[in-house]
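One such given next:

>
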Amino acid sequence: MILILNNKSNLTYEEVKYYEKQLRKYNLIVLPAYCYLPLFKKGKYTVGSQDISEFKELNRTGEINGKQLKSLNVKYSLIGHSERRLYNKEDNISIINKIERCLENDIIPLYCIGDKEDSYDELIKQIDVIENRFNDKEIIYVYEPTNNIGNLSPNFDKIEDK
């Protein structure tokens, strides 16, 4: 099992400094907000990003590209998170582009799959979209049951069933 901590857009600068010190002894993947990536250099943890630009061009205001992430020693990037699919309207094309940007920069994609209303067919579709295109590449599939996102009391029994 791989433990991934996604900080989302939480924590202030002072909170992140304290948090980072607490994580140093753990072997896990931490995904801090972009502005805090440079603070994560001293622990056993591995650093990942919460996203990556889907564009090859480097002149996109507000985007973080693969070269920039690689220069910050980012090893993983979270792709296809349900919140980005919902709020940013990310579709399979942008997700595929992001995976390509990761692979071009030797960043391992953490590809999120999730189910709506317990639809196993939806999970299979999400996997097939990527497997059909990247079947020989290293991609880590991250299962995020959508009913547990943001839930402080997740239903682990349901997760184990899947």
Remarks:
- The longest helix spans residues 120-134.
- The CA atoms of residues 30 and 118 lie 28 Å apart.
